[in-house]
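Incident log, entry 3
Record: DegT/DnrJ/EryC1/StrS family aminotransferase (379 residues)
Problem: checksum mismatch between cached and fresh output.
Input:
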Amino acid sequence: MSTDRIPVMIPWLGEEEAQAASDAVLSGWVAQGPRVAAFEKAFAERVGAEHGIAVSSCTTALHLSLVALDLGPGDEVVVPSLSFIATANAVRYVGAEPVFADVDLATGNLTPAAVDAVRTPRTKAVLAVHQGGVPADVAALRSVCADWDLPLVEDAACAIGSTVGGKPVGHGALLAAWSFHPRKLVTTGEGGMLTTDDAEWAARLRRLREHGMNASAAERHASNKPVLESYLEVGFNYRMTDVQAAIGMVQLGKLDAMITRRRELAARYDALLRDVPGLTVVRDPAHGQSNFQSYWVLLDADFPVGRDELLGALADAGVSARRGIMAAHLEPAYADHPRAPLPVTERITRDSLILPLFHTMTEAQQDRVVAALREQAGG
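Fresh output:
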């Protein structure tokens, strides 16, 4: 067994981020403040949105998006089961019911046909995911959702820097939710963002993240006169700190380099694994380009070993791979939740695994991953 273990992911963090965080601490303003505002503006510009609302996680961003749509008990929201469980959980947070739809085998994403198959008169919204950074076909989804008079929310947790039709994921989105977890390209440790083009929604979302308050702490501090805030509705404590935002600004400046390197590594994986029998690799869809937040492979029925056995063999070879994307409907939290058959979702979650991919990955490390895979494939 190799002692030089190859991790599945390493955030690209360094002295710049450390200095930015230190500067924020030494400024005396560490809560939500001017650095958060600057990060919101820069992030929104990057994804082609009018407004950014920084929050404590992508999960809270998803929750607030559904609050903004005034969803509640008796409503249904179509979601993919093939996603981190937070996607479905956010629907339950507002008292609505997630309705699981199947996904496309090649991309892992919702399609108009899959949504239509489970849509009912109680459907009040669609929550689509750009899975693992692979962009969903939002042009098609937006078109059918407009025909059905349904709002489309985009879970873009993994998709910063991915594109659809030559434009950034998030461009033109009604509401898009983003993650800055360490496994994402841009990280602030924890944290999230909501983007929208609607100024009224943005103003309300900023209130909702701060207890429903009509004047933020930063606004009160900046005023030369006493500001007596009001609490206009029941809100939440979903704020981001200026320390996190300072790190995020540095990370955002590295994004182009991250995407270039990850796409280079993904293309090299593709070339090295192309002739491995029984293996299908993730690729760009026809409608866009992935940031390759995750690089996953799908095992065919004739692959010599099963997914879990392969994960074990890779671990013995010093390679830290991960199981593929989870399926929420197979978890105990949703064991009794009614659903239609989801054959593609269950195929992907059963037979896929995520390979190591990170900015500082060397070709020698990638060669070791490929060699370990080939050995299990029979050469």
